[in-house]
Model the fold of this input.
Amino acid sequence: MRARKAGKLILALGILMAALVAGCAATGKNSEGVLYVNATIYTVDNAFSTATVLAVKGDRIAYVGSDRAAAEAALRSGFRVVDLEGKTVIPGIIDAHIHFQYIGQNMARVDAFWQPKEVIVDRVREAVALAAPGEWILGWGWNHEIWPGRQFPTREDLDAVSPNNPVALTRTDGHSLWVNSAAIEAAGITSATPDPEGGEILKNPRGEPSGMLMGLAQGLVNSVVPIASDSQKRHYYQLAQDHILSYGMTSFWDAGVSFDDALLLRTMYQAGNLKVRANVALHNGTAESDAQYINAGYKAERGMYGNRLSIASVKAQIDGSLGSRTAFLFEEYEDRPGHFGNPRYTEDELYSVISRAHANGFQPGIHAIGDGGVNRTLNVYERVLNEQPKDDHRFRIEHYQIVLPEDIPRTVAMGVIPSMQPVHATSDMNMAEDRVGPVRILSSYAWCEVLEKGGIIAGGSDAPVELLNPYHGLFAAITRMDKFGAPEGGWYPQHLMSREDALRGFTIWAAHAQFDEKLIGSLEAGKLADFVVLDRDIMTVSPASLRETQALLTVLGGEVVYEREIESPTLTVFGETVDGIVVTNGIMYASAAAFAAELNKATVTTAANGSSARIIREGVDATFTVGSDTARVNNANVPLQAAVAPGVLVSVDDLAKIFGLNASYHPHSLTTNVTF
Done:
């Protein structure tokens, strides 16, 4: 499963509102105040102090510390007491780079996220069967780097299942598009169509469009895809908000919306339809388009509708991505000689965008992944700030992945904030060094170099390019490993972040990057009461367990906006939920086949009569037979904790032990996590 369901935005756990202070009527409202007690609270203040008590009055924090009497005095009278029973509390997560609408939009489309090509093709087939004739089939998330051969797909792959319905599937990085012949025809693309500036139409050996559109060439097809209606967009925003709140995320920076969508968001927040705190950046597809919002008479605005919406940034993309080879590099790609990527702006063009935005009070955030893109952005920032000085400008660079060694101290000295996504390093490590070679990779995804030179990093996910889950981001930041624990010790571990800095990146540093550090990002008296209650202590659990953290309760401005329903125990294997578990006499059983499906490099064979299952994985060959209290492992009998049940249901503890994995149980969420 790609992500667990968001759950209901209601109270459901039954642990909250456990007691009322004498004299306080049980109205069910938070008008007078709420006192949260018996918690491990990481405030993420300057001292990274901990506390046990948190008092909320209205939408603000009245007290945080460990003196209950002082907390009660801060609330004065008429408050409820919530016993958190030892759970962990952190500030509400702030994602410094997402695409709000597209998160919801992709939840309603073909899910191709990191799936095998044949699975994606089957899902397209299923979508075509439900679609009207000629209706577009859209999706997101494929990554050819995990497929055998690591080759880009072709239009013929899709033509086989959708000869008449146009299909357009966006790569996980958002910088290349896989289309079928019907989509190519709808866009009027032929062998003679020239490559647009900043893009490329890949060709097959016959010189015909192959079905792959790179960089700005995606616009040739996207321009003829039916535009979503405002009603559809409202639905996408609601889906995305529910998903965001389910992770304990209370604020984000939206990396680029259109002028019309910015206006739509204003109407939704004004009507109270959305609650999550959004900092919206206006998107600039070309050097000319940035003027639309400014020409309409709008200035940068922060803290609208009760500190829920800010439209105060401008986003532009100077290049593409490493995976699609559209990131702009100083030197040619190691695995494509003569190719330097697809830059989208000259320095003068980018200067036109940034100088105008800065003059109108908008904060720039420039997408720059290649070292050529980062350097060009810094040159423009330097030029603009020399002409329009501002001490506390907080100019941003989004992604900041491949960087010239000399540009890292330059970035910090200029006061530019790298907005980086830790999960990109662990997603890109399967191809990054192939793209840039062994020298340039040393100053790539170089989080610690930024921090050691006195800078900060605003942490994010880039969802839906990556999964939204912020605990995956924290895990990536402190391990630089994939979900299976590879490589051992982490990929270029000299760049590992501490847990404290990783959490700062997703809280107070992300708040600073959007000028909100006086309101949110840490739990301190006077700040907005945005926080999340977790099922485990993320500062002390094992790294693998950190990744599987569950948000139990999300509070935004003092209001409970999400609470996870816990109806029955849950099993996850390397982060994926395994369905069909059975709990008997306190022992959790799982289907051997379902368990094996979530293991890397594993094969499973089930007997035709359902009497046994054989799993082979990384030197372990194990056969489980129904009714037996032993397993045959590498030609030896190994005793099991419990006999194998019909359906080849095997104790989860036994499965984990045999395959050298760890199983940990978290009573607050009734979740068993199996991981490395």
About this structure: The CA atoms of residues 315 and 446 lie 23 Å apart. Residues 1-30 have pLDDT under 50 and may be disordered. DSSP finds 22 helices and 38 strands in the chain.
